[in-house]
Amino acid sequence: MAIWLDTAADDFETAFTALLSMKREVSKDVGDTVDAIIADIRANGDTALAAYSARFDDVDFSDPATPMKVGTEEIEAAIAAVDPKVIDALRLAEERIRKHHARQLPPDDSYEDEIGVTLGHRWTAVEAVGLYVPGGTASYPSSVLMNAVPAKVAGVERVVMVVPAMKGKINPAVLAAAKIAGITEIYRIGGAQAVAALAYGTETIAPVSKIVGPGNAYVAAAKRAVFGTVGIDMIAGPSEVLVIADGDNNPDWIAADLLAQAEHDTAAQSILITTDKALGEAVEKAVERQLKTLPRGEIAGASWRDYGAIISVLDLDTALSLANRVAPEHLELAVDDPEALIPKVRNAGAIFAGHYTPEAIGDYVGGSNHVLPTARSARFSSGLGVLDFMKRTSILRLGPEQLNRLAPSAIELAECEGLGAHARSVAIRLNRKE
Amino acid sequence: MAIWLDTAADDFETAFTALLSMKREVSKDVGDTVDAIIADIRANGDTALAAYSARFDDVDFSDPATPMKVGTEEIEAAIAAVDPKVIDALRLAEERIRKHHARQLPPDDSYEDEIGVTLGHRWTAVEAVGLYVPGGTASYPSSVLMNAVPAKVAGVERVVMVVPAMKGKINPAVLAAAKIAGITEIYRIGGAQAVAALAYGTETIAPVSKIVGPGNAYVAAAKRAVFGTVGIDMIAGPSEVLVIADGDNNPDWIAADLLAQAEHDTAAQSILITTDKALGEAVEKAVERQLKTLPRGEIAGASWRDYGAIISVLDLDTALSLANRVAPEHLELAVDDPEALIPKVRNAGAIFAGHYTPEAIGDYVGGSNHVLPTARSARFSSGLGVLDFMKRTSILRLGPEQLNRLAPSAIELAECEGLGAHARSVAIRLNRKE
After folding, report:
1. Between vectors from CA A29 to CA A24 and to CA A31, what angle results, nearest 5°?
2. Which residues of chain A lie closer than 8 angstroms to B253, CB-CB?
3. Which of this chain's residues are annotated to bind substrate (chains A, B) (predicted)?
4. What are B305-331's pLDDT values in tens digits?
């Protein structure tokens, strides 16, 4: 049973606000542990890294079968061990992601304004990026592609992957995805210790400038702690989908989409907003039916029971206005004319338009990125893209005439701010160098 | 006396690495205090806000002369109280910043790929942004423009300014700059309590989605703590300049530029890299001379003594390679042909090109933004711009043919990742709805 809300009900606003402020994630307080691990890695480098890996991952780097750095042979062996159909699918995904992201490469700018000042900017790639890949069941080859390909497209020279390897083992599909994405530097490490090693470097691992990729509470806390020393991407929270559906929909399809989100995590959230209450009821029945035959039915069922919601509205405009308040990671527009609704979407990580675009296509082979802002952060942030691996240097150039023209105002403001040396650095140039 | 380094010296690499890793900022551990303040604001709203403001800023919001929200009359009175020359200079600055930043508005994209999938993205503005303005001597009207104008250009509907007001007083030039930038919602609050109020809202203040602007250790810690609930800009550190100069320079000009940076803060850093050791020596003498007549000579002198550096190199290529390792906030290219060097700059917040572009011009009226990445973060981040106030929503649309084409790969990958509901949400649509 999901939560039912109806905009026609008197208590709707209260109920909807409660839905918005629902806390789905319990953030473990691991700050002290993480700080200690980071300090240890900074002080003791590889030695500390090996000790933590032995303790948390039960892996011995002195064993030639499981060295810290994953060798070429191990990567080749992984490719050979993965079903060729999966390899083909990964290749197709990589190609589609690469082609799509190539369009995000930003243009440089340079122009002269009306008084002859040259202004502009140049974009350059971050030189070295670390990609954290979780171990265990959340070790997704698709996420390797989604994080690595935009970095490669941006022109990042060094993309370093870290992945914790319980008893030394790494999911071969993850290694295959890394190889397909062009990653050659891979370390068998994880947790806060891997984040610290990437940020500060060790004898074996040269430091990077930015760290991306999802992880558990320790990884998230470590990323927050090293932020500033290196750049980080967003802190990922549990996934969510919001489906807007009119009456003309197959309830089984919508149910399948809600469950595709719910199966990620018991803290995932699936919301349906519909103009047709009968469809909502049919979807709810279909969800219960499909749950019975779902391999991850227990997880999906818990998510749906605790956080699933069906909201009945009078019209699509109301649906969109509620969706904008939710600011969902994934927004499905299950209507015949989604293009009419798209301009009204203000806050969403990604839109999946029409009846034939289940969100799962975007997870794998659509070409767009599946790393998207969760927990309402689409109000202020974007999905991962090429810009996350580049930075802009602004450029300003004045000649003597332009300096003469702008100097009085600059000096006025510098003096108003009490910054005499600022004023002098401008004034001193009014006596020409020549 | 600044530090002298010479690339020809045997110990250069050691000395340069030490310069790079010099810690200029002592980060006060204020986390617990800040957490308590945030919790109090969330629980008690305006009441807590008034109490902290009484305690830290000695201001009484119940006094009709100093209400929490700054009234229109107070803003008008501020404009009247500021020197008209300053007002004119602020207007010129605002116009130049606005025109320049308008070029940063990003284009939307929509295209059909070779198999008929529609992909694209739309950019939308963040709906509400909070701008933190420090009180006291660091209360700079120019920074109000640099933070607010890009937000306005992006299309942010609600820009809220907060500024701590010791005994109720706000720098009139700051209010004038706010008015010129089009800010109408201003609160007389500061510190961690103001950040918490912006992030979570109170009875008087509606919450925002993103908070920008510099502040002290408490403000920085509060921004770090609310990150995720709202977006934040970078955590600003002490300012720095790196000047690359060939022999053909007036030492007094270079000295003035080094001191303009040094006067900001005893933790600021000014570095000169020159191909002409004699110029370096002349600049050092000029710095000592100019320090004597500088209003903020004590601050600038301490910064220069503790962190100033002059590096002698054999050629400009070496200078650039060192500059890229420093990744300075401000990079001045004091050479005759700066355009030849610009393509070689990899890591810098902003470039000031040629002999007539002192960095201070960029602080005020150049048009480019003066909020730039400090503490080597130009390796992975950019100066403030319009993109910081916008977010990208990706769009994907498949029809039945495209779904049929991509479904097998998506299903293959979903099954490889153990996500059966993902696979089903794709497979179920292969039986057409009609």
Report:
1. 135
2. 425, 428-429, 433
3. 239, 261, 264, 330, 363, 417, 422
4. 999 999 999 999 999 999 999 999 999
